[in-house]
Amino acid sequence: MSLKRAHCGDNLDSLGVSVHHLKDVFLNKHVLEAGGTYKSKIKDLEDLEGFQGVIRKQGCNSICPIDGKVGAAYVHTLEGNDHVGLANFMLSYTWEYTVGNIIDTLIDHCHSNGLDTKRTYIWICCLCVNQHRVVEQSERRQTSGMLCSDFDFFSIFRQRVQTIGHVLCMMEPWNNPTYLTRVWCVFEIYTASETESCYVTIVMPPEQKRLLQEDIVGEDGAGIDALYEALGN
What we know:
6-stranded mixed sheet, disordered N terminus, 10% strand, alpha/beta, 11 helices
């Protein structure tokens, strides 16, 4: 029996990747070895309409523990408590964000709240949803012309929100977040805020936090003007 099953029972769809793993293994090993960089966007690491990238590559020969088919989610390829466990947080973000900024944001969240990066597990869709199945579904839809989807992201998200109970909404840049231009992201933060006993925390990269602080205390009231302009956006 794997460590994942031993410690997580039947909650395989609620597993998260540790913040420690994201930095020391996902970024420093898989992303960099594949030719990516700290500034690589998630969408560039894994093109669901084209090449098999960093994410699917890790589980392409593994058996999915949920459906028993070849091709597993990244999270289901991991072993050991320092790398995988029941998610403490769900990250709501966009694939336009860079892997470096995502990781810096999560590390900063851990440090700001006294959390151990090896015991803080993040449910992040690119690594915790089986992207092999997402691609297979897309191919079936293109072939058959069907309009409906058998991969219900709405239900998946609602279930994760209810199970995990704490959503981190990543905003950057602080004064005009890409996050708020994505319908799906707006749906996520709305669903989380409307879910009883679910906490919502706004997070951002350390550099954006610094810029926010500088803008707010800007001279001649310019900081307040910048804040109102951001809220208006």
